Every structure is written in structure tokens, then in C-alpha cells.
Amino acid sequence: MSPLLCTYSYPAATSIAAMASAPLLLCVLLIFTYCLVALGGRHERGFVVVPTSSSSATEQAACSFVSQVASGPNRASVPLAHRHGPCAPASVSSGGVKPSLAERLRRDRARRHHILSMATGRTTVTLSDSDAAGVSIPTSLGAAVDSLQYVVTLGFGTPAIEQTVLIDTGSDLSWVQCKPCNSTSCYPQKDPLFDPTASSSYAPVPCDTGACRDLADGGYGAGCTNGTGKSLCQYGIQYGNLDTTVGVYSTETLTLKPGVAIKNFSFGCGLSQQGKFDRFDGLLGLGGAPESLVSQTAATYGGAFSYCLPPVNGTTGFLALGAPGSNNTAGFVFTPLHSSPEGPTFYVVTLTGISVAGKELDIPPAAFRQGMIIDSGTVVTGLPETAYTVLRKAFRSAMSAYPLLPPNEDQDLDTCYNFTGLSNVTVPTVSLTFDGGATIDLDVPNGILLEDCLAFVGDGSDDTGIIGNVNQRTFEVLYDSGRGRVGFRPGAC
Q1: CA 243 from chain center: how many Å?
Q2: How far apart are the C-alpha atoms of 391 and 105, rounded to whole Å?
Q3: Of 11, 39, 148, 214, which residue is most buried, by most CB within 10 angstroms?
Q4: What count of other Cβ atoms lies within 10 Å of the Cβ of residue 406?
Q5: What backbone phi and psi angles, to 5 degrees, belong to 282?
Q6: Segment (H or E) for 351
Q7: What is the secondary structure of 226-273 as a DSSP string?
Q8: CA 392, CA 160: separation in Å to the nearest integer?
Q9: Tell me, what is one Gene Ontology molecular-function annotation carried by this entry (predicted)?
Q10: Which segments of 164-292 does DSSP mark as H helices, in order?
Q11: What letter does residue 58 receive in the DSSP assignment?
Q12: What CA–CA distance (Å, rounded) separates 426 from 444?
């Protein structure tokens, strides 16, 4: 390394002592600054200098489109946006107002715990007559939806009517609110309600059919209902936060974009929704069970889909069906996709190691033996307790230059920092290594920090963990069930 040359111009009437000490002080400052810049090379030094969240807040005021979908001969993609950001459609936008961090973490904790509890089996409750006409439905078929953050806009029916729906890899059956829903049986939405009578391609599923029996076998059936003199198949879902949706199981044409449509798409035409639903028009199920969009389109898209979750609210990502072409996977790293003991809905991978600032942590391999569910709707990553304890210690050590905030009993995150008055901070890199050797460097800082807090928690045991969506930001995450693998491509949005 070349020696640093320090120069300094002395103002008039400067003392001899000050003249002697100033170059030394300035040289030290220059060396410190030089080192901070040098640390910005994540692969060499393991640290990155980044602006603090307060200094970069203005960058999120407008929407920008930066997504790069990996191409393939049989892929279809749509834009994806954060529901609380400027890129969200006006129909679901909250105008910049979003729940507090404590409230988002409360919802996230409920979702995470519900997903992990599904291994204990499903239970059934009977909803009241005012809620859903006395329908008995399983309680564990969907994780809480009030924590979901990302939306896409699709066309339902012929002619296609735009509906903005939440995406959820923790759910299978898709649904939208339908007419004749009213204010007492459905929640308010800004988009027009989908009107099945105005669509030439809509068809309700009769009760005494194989499709209705399959729905019941999958746990989503809720008996039969009468409509226009016919006995129709009824679906019902109660989510982990006790929100419910009940309606008619139906088929319809789903338009992804002009010229790309899925005919006879099975979904729920919701006639009674109760709970904390807000603004969005419905939900798009991306789980692995037969009722999901992924399974229904497997013949066309090979059971593969991917998404890229943007690093900040002011940019867009994408949702794509199908896998990239075989000659266009150079940017991906792959790890085996495993079956889930919790059922076919969830996607499981095996985490084998974690590195902080370029150094692999000493975590016993047994800590990861139960696998990690990748989930689009969970926010922070829930690690096995043994792994989290080691990660927290290493991260705090690497961030020791910054004051650690005292624990907040209103939220799960226990490694939060006070960056007040700072425009830039130096953050250590965090890397995840999976079965087969696939290693991903999480985006710095957006894939590591959530409002100046480490976006990981310990789940109290060494059972199955969940990789949350903060860690997934900027990656194209490819779920390729047909080939039994999950891929990660950095810098996709």
C-alpha cells in the first residue's frame, strides 16, 4: 500500500504547538476515513459503509423500476410492490401510513409461530352464523395475512378486471372478494368488487363433483351452498390471526398480462370476509399444495416460480412463473428443495452455516437439522436458538462502535442501534450457506437491518426455522419444484 501523504494549510496566527499537532491529527483522520472506504469491499474486508435509514429516507419518496427478470423461453412476469410504498397501486396504498414497527413485529411473530405450530396438527372451529353461516372450517390452513407486505395486480374474468392481491407462499387457495358482497359481510376495498355475472368465463364449481371433493380432501372444503337454484361447492379458510374468508369455489380466466392468460383457474369467490383485512382485493396462494397457482400451472410452467422483493419501498420487484432457460442460470446458486413435514404448502431448505464479516461462525451442524422454511410473508428470520445466540454475539461484536439500544419489551428484536446524528455507518456482511455449498451474501444494509435492528430472532428451540423476507431482498428467489431445488440470484431488483 502506498504511504498516505497528509497536507494541511495553516490559518494565520496559528501556534507552533497547534502547527505541530494538526498534521498528525489530520493524518490519523485520513487513515481512519481511508480504512472505512476500504472496508466497503465486502469480499475483501467483510464490512460495508452505508447511509443510515434516516439519511436515506428521501430516496423512497418516488417509485422507480429497476427489476431485471432472468429470461426464459416460457416465463411470464408481473411487477411486484410493497403495499406501503409509492410503487403500490393507489387502490391498496396507505398514503405513506404504515403500522408501527412494534405492531408489524407483533403480527410477524403471530404468523411465524402459527406456521411453526402447524406440525402439531389441524383443529376445527365453527364460525358463528353472523360470520359465515355456521360453516366449520380448518383453522390452520393459512398463516396470518395482516403481516403480508407485497402485492401484484392481475386480471380476473373476461373482460379482465384488475384486482390487486397479496402474494403468499404460506397459503395455497387464492381468492378475491366478489359481488354481491356488502359492507356487513366484506371489508372495504377501493377497487371495484369482482362481479362474476359480468364475466363470460366465470363458472362456479358444482357441489357433487370431483373438484369439490378434492377441495375437501385438501382441507379447504366448507360444504355446499345454494346459488341460483344449484348446490355449489363452498370453500372456507380461517387464518392464524382468526381472519376468515368463505365463498363459492369457482373457475375463471386469470390474466397475468396482455396476451398471457390462465384458463380455468380455480379460486375462491369470497362472499363473507371477517377480520383485519384492509384495502387489498384478495390473496394469491403460492404454496406447494394442489390448490395453489403454482400447482395449477405446473403443466405450463413446470411447477416453478420466482420473485424479487425490492430493497426499499420505493422500488419494484417482480413475480414470475416458470424457470429461466437452462443457458440463463449462471447468476444463480442452488440448494436442494426438501419436503415439509408440516405439509405440502411450505418450501424447506437446509441451512448449514452463517458468516459475519467474512468469518464463518462456530455453530453446531445439529442446530440446523430441522430445516428452514422460506416464506414471503414472514418479515424477520427466525433461527434455531443455538444459531441465533452465536449470530447475535458476532454481530454485536462487529458493531461495537455504535451504541446498542436497551431491550424493548414491545418487540422481538433485541439487537437495535442508535444511529442518531450519523449519516453513514459501517455494517458487517452476513452470509448464509445452504446444503450443497450455495452461499448468499445478504444485501447490506437492507437484507440485514430492519429500522436499525438486526432482522433475526431466536425461536426458543432448535426446531424448524423460517427465512423471512428481509433476508430475501434484492434476490431473485427461484422455487423450482420440478427440479427439486431453490435458487438465489443477487441484484435482481
Answers
A1: 20
A2: 20
A3: 148
A4: 9
A5: 170, -160
A6: strand 351-356
A7: EETTEEEEEEEEEBTTS-EEEEEEEEEEEEEETTEEEEEEEEEEEEEE
A8: 49
A9: aspartic-type endopeptidase activity
A10: 210-217
A11: G
A12: 10
Contact 241, 275 (CB under 8 A): yes
Which DSSP helix (H) or strand (E) runs through 460?
none
What are 441's three cell numbers? 451474501
Question: Cα dist. 409→186, 388, 412 in Å?
Answer: 35, 18, 7
Residue 373: the pLDDT is: 94
Q: How many residues does the chain have?
A: 493
Spatial contact of 492 and 70, defined as CB atoms under 8 Å apart: yes
Closest among 348, 307, 351 to 148, alpha carbons compared: 307
CA distance 224 to 174: 19
The model carries a pTM of 0.84
CA distance 238 to 138: 6
Cα–Cα distance for residue pair 374/347, rounded to 1 Å:
6
Locus of grid cell 411486484: 80
Q: How far is it, in rounded angstroms, from Cα 351 to Cα 149? A: 25
Give 35's contacts (C-beta < 8 A, 6+ positions apart): none
Question: What is the Cα–Cα distance from 207 to 219, expressed in whole angstroms?
Answer: 15
Biggest alpha carbon–alpha carbon distance for the chain: 101
Cα–Cα distance, 430 to 439 (Å, whole number): 10
Grid cell at residue 364: 453446531
pLDDT digits (tens, 9 = 90+) for 369-395: 999 999 998 999 999 999 999 999 999
Which residues does residue 260 pair with via DSSP β-bridges, in sequence order?
257
| CB proximity list for 236: less than 8 A, separation 6 or greater | 127, 132, 135, 136, 137, 220, 221, 222, 244, 245, 246
Instruction: DSSP letter for 389, please.
Output: H
The set of catalytic residues is 168, 375
CA pair distance 460, 385, nearest whole angstrom: 5
Asked whether the predicted pLDDT for residue 296 surpasses 90, the reply is yes
Cell (9 digits) for 431: 452470509
Is residue 412 pLDDT above 60, yes or no?
A: yes
Tens digit of pLDDT for each residue in 262-291?
A: 999 999 999 999 887 777 899 999 999 999
Beta strands in 203-243 (DSSP E): 203-204, 221-227, 230-238
What CA–CA distances, in Å, run from 252 to 154, 265, 266, 307? 12, 5, 7, 24
Express each pLDDT in 476-493 by its tens digit. 999 999 999 999 999 999
- For residue 196, give the C-alpha cell: 362474476
How would you classify the pairing of strands 347-349 and 333-336?
A: unpaired
Q: What cell does 118 get? A: 402447524
* 428 closest CA partner among 409, 447, 411, 413: 447
